[in-house]
Amino acid sequence: MTDVVFHEIAFLLLGAAAVGLLGAALRQPVIVSFIAVGIAAAAFFDSSVETREQIRFLAELGVSLLLFLVGLKLDWRLVRTLGPVALATGLGQVVFTAGIGYFIGLALGLGWLTSLYVAIALTFSSTIIVVKLLSDKRELETLHGRIALGFLIVQDIVVVIAMVILSTIGIGVVEERNGLTSLLTILASLAGVVLLLVVFVRYLADPLMARLARTPELLVIASIGWAATAAAIGETIGLGKELGGLAAGVSIGSTPYRDMVSARLSALRDFLLLFFFLSIGATLDLSTLGQDFTRAIVFSLFVLIGNPFIVILIMAWMGYRARTGFLAGLTVAQISEFSLIFMAMGLSLGHVSQSAVGLVTLVGLVTIALSVYMITYSQQLYAWSRPLLPPFDFGSWRERVAENEEGKPAVDVIIFGLGRFGSQLLRRLDDSGYHVLGIDMDPQAIRRFAREGYQVRYGDVTEQEFWAELPLTQARWVVLSVPYGTILLTETDPRSGLLTAIRAHRFGGRVAITARDDQEARRLKEGGGVDLVLYPFDEAATSAAKQITDLDEELSSPKEAAKT
Fold it and tell me: Rounded to a whole number, what is the distance in angstroms from the first to the last CA of the chain?
């Protein structure tokens, strides 16, 4: 039976890769491809009970890891920095979508509880998809990109609140206990978790993560173990795996190592979420698709048109141009993987039926597929819609202020590697008036430079996901100053990793890389993408030789003068 499970999952993975390749050619995110594979697998293949159990287990682990990474990235500071526009736009879009969506559900014949669930599910937009698309277009650090990121984080916070409320309401349904007892139990559990989080973040998070960060592989294993353990504890005390994983992420989200953990776990997250989307697609009742199709089209049009419209209105009212509101509004023209997770939680609690989950899944397929093209070709869409937008240009006073602030360069040079050469380069450039960001994998070096007042981050040049967090549109130089050593077979060459990331993110500045000799410099330049090769050893030797000769001349000059 083990062989059967292995074979069936192997074929599913191969099928997912094939459909994903087709989806990539159509510029579709993997979520759409994976759900399609799940639907096809359920329709044409009869998998064993053991295989379905394994898929369910991996799906639960994937959801826990996803929420762990969300908690890791839950940056309240960004919302506070962006100010009223992120909060007003995020909450306004949530209230608008949930309120109108609820009445649309009732009008389409859904029950009040199902309408409420569907309406709330429609409020969540996919942060993963939006960040990926904006990053590919190099718009993540534009004004509309930063505003979109801000209200997406507000949505993530709403997700957290919605799941807490769902757990509070649903625990009594699942365990069939007295409602008041259930409510007191869940509130006590929440209070205990909050207290433990405060203590952990205050006293244990930084020293523990600093110790683990000395061995990056151990940091990854410990993070996965912590996410899974917290999810299991959350399930045990009645909060659910989802909130347990979320709390685990929040507990280390304040440490300087969160970006590194997030970058290293992103590939594993995508792999495990494959099984979640497979399970969602496999549970769709194909016989009800005809009835759900009409409802799905209505809800999809509502999300595709209504969500951007409310964002335009709110941002225009707050003093932003219609163009900025239009481009930011396109980012909420889809629902997210959280919508499916939210509906799956409702199904497990007995609040909604399988057909409701299928309805939201169909809405997800339609809105995600179309919004990808809407965001990708946002400038063309704006040009076509421009004649309709003048009524929404109430003023642009706030945007002028934001553009002036945005014009100030935050980072001129990004240096990877703060060893002997990199650290001195950081200091010299900082003394010359450059804004420098230093990145290293040594937590002790990061803490030392942070105490000295330098802008530094913990990260790895070979982690491609980490590059999405960097201010590449502002930087004029990227310098690789990683110490030389033996490259193990299981590790990525830092130089090839940097050049790959530079090409992938279409960095428009210049690149400098250190080399030991001319032969190595020629090899680096042959690959392209390198503007300057630095010779730290040669330059250090030249400087040392000059100091020796200068000192020798100074010492010998009095002797020569005495002889004459």
Answer: 100
